[in-house]
Specification:
The protein is built from 15 helices and 17 strands. A hairpin with a 2-residue loop joins strand 15 and strand 16. The relative contact order is 0.16.
């Protein structure tokens, strides 16, 4: 791999924007960041940035898209290799160079969420990730009423197949779905269910109970293995306190400002969804992410269900709400890196860090990724992708 110099770019660092800058990539890492150019040997590859933005690669801690990619229609299951590599190109096109694929460890809502399918999918992602364009990790979303998953999750964590563990409870009547009617409308549309099937789903979900012993055992194992933990849809100070005692350090999608403020006061990093920022409201009628951002309690933006969400949310914050761009970028890169222990290697454009970079142009007010690097290797340029370490096709097809 040739050393590379990227010239004439607006480099977004954690503290500022350096205009008319040059960035030197050496052996997969950032060797130098300088204003007004770098003197380089003639054998270097030189890329003219033509005044575009240069951002650190986005780190997405919560992205549900992989489940939809594997099962694009109910019971239409696609081989994992095809789904993963297809999704990678979409993520990279939106600046994501490190992804935590969110798999729900719960049963009963789709083919992709059966016990055997969840385990198989996680195994396959871990097998194929060495051939990826980007960094592929697993975020295990453990439903606290699905204790049958607990033993296998412990084994997966021991084998380093899970890099982030979160606790969620989608029981209708609390958390994200305090309003049962919202849950019923969502599940009817999402799973194409009739009224009777929706009612049966609610009854079945409400009959399940939290296994606190399994929950505590999982948390204990995650702490022992230094695997970061998150809570999902916190809806009260009591829930935040309980999760913090388990060792949780991240609060994903708190449902109201009171809970978000309390989580921040307790030292948890608050995560909101990029679609909520872009749309200006929650899809479930819960807390407005923009209200939380303006309230100073948001640390991290994730994509949630929309791969393009983080990059676009960054520019919405910058262009529409006048947030300094380096602060907005930190919410999608450095802050998530810190939250999961990657900040020594990733998350910002600083000398010595791995060269995960994206060059961004704005077209009609929309940010567009024109070039991307992972470990200093150019993996995408204007819609063309370079998978130099691609596996044999038969591996993808299974």
């Amino acid at each position: 791999m040739k050393d590379t110099v990227i010239t004439d770019v607006r480099v977004v660092t954690p503290q500022e924007v350096i205009n008319n800058a040059s960035v030197y990539l050496h052996k997969g890492r950032i060797g130098a960041v300088k204003k007004n150019g770098i003197n380089w040997p003639q054998n270097y590859e030189v890329i003219d940035g033509k005044g575009k933005w240069l951002l650190p690669g986005i780190i997405d801690l919560h992205n549900d898209a992989i489940e939809k990619e594997i099962e694009p229609r109910p019971n239409a299951v696609i081989p994992v290799g095809i789904a993963l590599f297809s999704l990678e190109t979409r993520l990279l096109s939106h600046g994501v160079t490190t992804i935590y694929h969110s798999f729900s460890f719960m049963e009963g809502e789709s083919a992709v969420r059966t016990y055997d399918m969840v385990l198989s999918n996680v195994e396959e992602i871990n097998r194929l990730k060495e051939h990826g364009l980007i960094r592929n990790y697993i975020h295990a979303r453990y439903d606290v009423t699905e204790h049958k998953f607990s033993p296998i999750l412990v084994e997966m964590m021991k084998r380093q197949q899970v890099k982030l563990l979160s606790f969620m409870d989608h029981t209708p009547g609390q958390g994200q779905y305090k309003n049962i009617e919202v849950y019923e409308k969502f599940i009817a549309k999402y799973r194409n269910l009739d009224e009777e099937a929706v009612k049966n789903n609610v009854i079945r979900r409400q009959a399940k109970k939290v296994d606190f012993q399994a929950l505590k055992s999982l948390a204990e194992k995650a702490r022992a293995l230094s695997i970061p933990m998150a809570s999902h849809d916190d809806d009260s100070a009591d829930k935040v306190r309980f999760m913090k005692k388990l060792g949780v350090t991240l609060s994903e999608f708190p449902i109201d400002m009171e809970t978000a403020n309390f989580a921040a006061q307790e030292g948890l990093k608050v995560i909101v969804g990029g679609p909520n920022i872009i749309r200006g409201k929650s899809n479930s009628g819960n807390m407005s992410a923009m209200e939380a951002v303006k309230g100073g309690v948001v640390d991290i933006i994730c994509s949630d269900y929309m791969p393009a969400a983080i990059l676009n949310a960054i520019f919405v914050l910058h262009r529409r709400h006048n947030m300094p761009i380096h602060q907005a970028v930190n919410m999608g890169s450095l802050n998530p890196a810190r939250a999961v222990g990657l900040e020594e290697e990733l998350g910002s454009i600083e000398c010595g860090k791995r060269a995960d970079l994206v060059m961004v142009n704005e077209v009609a007010g929309v940010p567009m990724v024109e070039m991307a690097f992972v470990d200093g290797r150019k993996v995408m340029e204007k819609g063309f992708f370079r998978r130099d370490n691609a596996p044999e096709l038969k591996e993808c097809l299974g």
